[in-house]
Amino acid sequence: MNSEKNNRIKQLEDKFEQAKKEPWAKKLRIGTGVLWNLFVILIIFAVIGVVFAGSVGAGYFASLVAKEPLRSKEELRDQIFNYEETSEMFFAKNVYLGKINSDIERRQITLDKVSQYAIDAVLATEDEYFEEHKGIVPKAIFRGVFQDVTNSDSQTGGSTLTQQLVKNQILTNEVSYERKAKEILLAMRLEHFMTKDEILEAYLNIIPYGRDVMGQNIAGIETAARGIFGIKAIDLTLPQAAYIAGIPQAPYTYTPFYSKNQGIKEREKLMYGVNRMKTVLFRMRDAGYISEAEYQEALAYDVTKDFRQPSRRATERYPYVTQEIQNRTIEILAEVLAEKDGISAERFEEDSKVKEKYEIMADRSMRTDGYRIFSTIDKDLYDKMNEVAKNFRHYGFTYTSETVDEESGKTITTQNPVQVGATMIENHTGKVLSFIGGRDYEIEALNHSTQAFRQNGSSIKPLLVYAPAIEYGVIGAGSPLVDVKYNWHGWKPGNYFDRELGVLSARESLARSQNLSTGRLYNQIFDRKPIEFLKKMNFSKVTDEDAQIPAASLGGLKYGVTVEENTNAFATFANGGQFIESYMIERIEDMKGNIVYEHKAKPVEVFSPETSYIITDMMRDVLRGNGTAARLPGLMNFRPDLAAKTGTSQHYGDAWLVGYNPNVSLGVWMGYKNQKTPLYNGYGSGQMHPSERTARLFGQLMNTANTVIPDTIKARDTFKRPNGVVTRSFCSISGLAPSKACASAGLVRSDLFNSKVMVPTKVDDSIVSSAAVRVNGRMYQALASTPREFVTSGGVGVTAEYGKRMLGRLGGDASKLLAGRGGYSNSVVAGSAFPADNVAPAAVSSGLNGSVLTWTPSSSNDVIGYYIYQNGVRIGTVRDGASRSYNVGYGSYYVRAVDITGLLSGASNTVTNSAPAPQPKPETNSGQSPESKPDATPDKESEAKPETKPDAKPETKPEAKPETKPEAKPETKPDTAPAEKE
Fold it and tell me: What is the pLDDT of residue 11?
């Protein structure tokens, strides 16, 4: 047997040797060798690639976690278990307010108080290898990275319970490889410092579970069990436990309740959570946590019948306060945390991602680190002010609208009332003593005192125009301004009543809130960039674009201001020109009583004390006479030294009143949510004017404050006049030092000036003697051809240069400078000649009423008066402005109009007294003297030349004053025209 076997082997060897000698065998050997060598090379490259990739990956991972500090065991455990501490808030004077108004409600629980069904459901759903892994599951991580790199539609995730715990308690939710790398590192480290039970217990206390029956966001399994099913976590049944365990994957899809206490979802939407529950049950069965019988029984169970029935939760008593304190605490803590990490203030403000990161960290810290947050809000004052706002009866009409809720599909009736915002600030500290956030937090949660940005209308005028102009030395309190229309690169504003007041004082312009004169003054200082004053006073949304908009002078800022910002700016004047930033958080202490933050004032010099006092004195006039808030003092039960300014924006979208005494400043705003909805639709609408509404509320709030905090208001304190504020005399129409001519004309006035930058020194040169004539109720210089009987000699006139100087680069109609309502139209003649047309005036129609001849006015615009004729003989003269009537006897009469050049109109129709006409004899008429010498020849109707012979006697009675339209009452007159924009 052995020899036969050896023979066969020998034969095979011989054949193999023979085959090797064949040509094809040789080629095969060469090919095989090449393939083998290539395979070896590929293996080598693959090994090198893996090593290289691993090295790069390891290096990249190391770079991502390079800045992550090596946390100690105690530090890691403290951060993980730090979910139980709730921060507390306080009013001023350490009056307890309550716990932080967290967006998520959480109840702490220990693992032994949780149903085993719930524990099994969580493990089967979220981390099937929880008991085996050391913090991470590598294959899950690689799967997640691959899906991310390939942008796969299927994202299965790769986080263990330990990783999720780290993400929620130590890191942030930002999506980045750096955060993921830190998460992996910390998860592995955490597994060394905590037992599996501790990790699981912490996870069950922090994970979000959607909403409870009241629509409140909830976290932690105990809160979920109580909020969804009304039972404790230890009592959860298998279906209930599976339902809750499925929620974290998509909390707001699987939760059975709507937000904002809107109740339970429709059955169709409930099925999302029920189907997710079935998935959890399936995984529990596959993992061996439950039997097939338990699985089938749970599947058949209707878990929806276990949901809690809707119930209303108690509304927080101070929603606006808690919201505002929380927002400001987050801002403060974000800066504190960033500073601890070495982040500069500049980088923090400029890098939005860095700021967002620290704001997330600050939010978590505020809610979990057990701070004691002390605010400046006086509880008693806040309660009383908001009670006044709640009971105020003059807000105006409340609109309603119906909308369909996107989530529930229900039709909801929404109220749109006039909203209100108010802020009271202590001037010398910047403390926000109290505020009014709105009418109803449930209607609109926006804080209209601190968060709503609205155009502030004419309340911006003292801040952006008048105070800067005083600071620059352009005006004093009584300096003359020009209230005449103009066109500034297409911007053509107007006053509320569309009247031009001509020359008037800066004090009166501000008190009346005239737009034209304010805009012209802004044009004078525009090149000096007065917008910088607003930036110094922390108007947070003022932009460089605002600096290019002329309409900003009337409140047309692009993004607007808040009530707090506006009020804070006015407090600058009360502080002698120092801006002291308002604040609401006094200090923050940690759980051990250590001070984490304490507010420190940082005053900013904005205006000089002299400017501040002068503008304050000017705004005192807003509350007097023709001022736009003259109604306010009568609405107050005490008399503080108060300065104030009103404001309304375009189409009455906003109404403002901001005022201050030496110690406190109060700002009040009203408006609809939609700024295009007007507060007022005109005098015929039967609505109370917005300025009246704000005055009434302002008065009630000040009365309340004086009752609640009299030691803070200090009603008897007055503003102290700095030594640099002086009273000087000046010529009221030019602002220059008085001349003899100005004094003789009675035009000298006295008012306040900042002696450090401006007092009148140059003597006025604008006054000249003048022969004046009245045209359409205004005084003009008489022409050489003007009939003398219409001329008043020895009047006061101004030079043509005066008109050019006053109108400045904007130009305008010089004839309106002294012919408006500024008080000079009866005494001073404009510096430009009347633009006569050298055409005979239009004829008039006459009539007879007993023995009184009357006639219609001529339609021509250059008429200076009328001649009266009896039987073709001129018997009298009536000047412009006097009554168009003349007492006559018997005979035939007609009238001719006379223009400023002396041209006559054609004769009117002739009227005849039926009795025989006596010889012509002039008769006395009111405002006229009878003529002593009749014309030599009868008048011819075809006569075109002016008569060369005047009436024999000048008229002996003074002219009657022109009819004037009375000013509107201050309490009904709004303060500003719309803030027009380019």
Answer: 67
